[in-house]
Amino acid sequence: MQLITAIGISASIFSAVCSIPQLIKIIKEKNAKSISIPMLVILIIGLLLWAYYGILLKDIIIIISNAFSAAINMLILAFSFIYKKLV
Predict the structure, then answer these.
(1) Do residues 19 and 66 make contact, with C-beta atoms less than 8 angstroms apart?
(2) Helix (DSSP H) and strand (DSSP E) numbers for the chain
(3) Is a pLDDT exceeding 90 seen at residue 78?
């Protein structure tokens, strides 16, 4: 594996999993009071556009990492709506 490929894969992994701690915190605390809905919506749109860009390029690393990130952030968005209504 070339260094540039390893860097790309590493960056994709870190980017893809960076929102998981936030998701876990929201679920554990059942509190999403401080989550910005507009920021999440903009982020999800950007991630989905990146995934589509990966599809156009046929780059599986871009597709998987951004689709996974979009899914995690959609869960954060869903739990944000659920827990903001409970408070």
Answers:
(1) no
(2) 4, 0
(3) yes
